[in-house]
Amino acid sequence: SARADLRTFLGQSGFVPYTVNAFPCGEFQAPVVKAKVYEPDWRQAERSEYTLGVARILAALLPDGVEAGTISTVPLGFWPKEDERARHDAAHALRSLASRLHDLEMETGKCISVALEPEPLCALSTLSDGVRYCEDILFAGTSALQESVLRRHLGLCLDFCHQAVMFESVAEPLIAAERAGVSVFKAQISAALEVTRTLDRADPWGSLRAFTEPRFLHQVVGADVDGRRASTWLDLPELLTRPPSSDIATLRCHFHVPIHWETTGRVRTTRACLEEIRDPVVRRRLPRHLEVETYTYSVLPGGTEVGRLPGIIAEELRWAAGLLAREPAAGGFNGHFF
């Protein structure tokens, strides 16, 4: 009855719940989340059951005429990408989930697809990692029929903040995904923090101290003057106790900030990386399901009053809509859900 009531409300309000962010499983606004956000991971049955439950709810909420929904999820888990046993165990669970999602589609007529969301310093750190995993492990060695089901229900989620933190563009991995037949079902329009040595030569990284907070994990990646990844820190406090070496020119921190921000004090954001959306190569391959993912309002320096949130969220959406509309692409670019 609760699902029916929500479906009615959504329909009357003109809302289409086309995607769900099921990366967190538990209290995402608990006092301390950190690496717990990756638990349970894809080796554990709880993750599969939780995700299938989300899929059933999403299928029930999708209105008539909308037959596809997407769910973003953890990038396998929070373990080294070299752990082959863990990667194969996760693939086994994901294949089983795809089979159940196929059954759900036969039952409801709704195709629900799950998108692995690469995140810095995880088992899948970049979109390129995700493409290789799908091609080499997840879809490999399966029958033609099973592979068809897997490709229909399993794929990737592109997060612009995460790509920027890893100093990776989005065009090349999107092309690689297309060539490999790996679907990028969903994109998250998001921005990270960035500081450079030239902004403050006396204390170039000190401005990040204001963003140290106990709730979320804020991975940091450093690059040299040529933009090549050179150093990593698991969390922001670690950076402050182990400062970068002299060859590091730029740091990017996995701290989602409002996407219309460009600078805040001596700290810049990676908003400029979102301009890649205007590249025709990217535009043509941008998935239909888009989500602005800024979840850190409550932990921004100085906090954010609840009463201000509607205005900030609206401003983010207006900025993103303007970015998407600057140079509309032929062939249905304006048909995105957003």
**Largest pleated sheet:** 6 strands, parallel
What is the SS-derived class? Answer: alpha/beta
Order of helices and strands: HEHEHEHHEHHEEEEHEEEHEH
What do the pLDDT scores average to?
A: 93
Helix proportion: 25-40%
Description of the structure:
α3 (84-108) packs across α5 and α4 runs parallel beside α7. The protein has helices at residues 2-13, 45-61, 84-108, 127-138, 144-153, 160-165, 171-180, 236-241, 280-283, 309-325; strands at residues 19-21, 68-73, 111-116, 154-159, 184-189, 191-196, 220-223, 229-233, 250-257, 263-264, 267-269, 289-292. β10 and β11 form a beta hairpin. A 6-stranded parallel beta sheet has the order 1-2-3-4-5-12. A 6-stranded antiparallel beta sheet has the order 8-7-9-6-11-10. The protein is of the alpha/beta class and 338 residues long. The protein is built from 10 helices and 12 strands.
Properties at a glance:
17% strand; six-stranded antiparallel beta sheet; alpha/beta; disordered C terminus; 338 residues; 10 helices
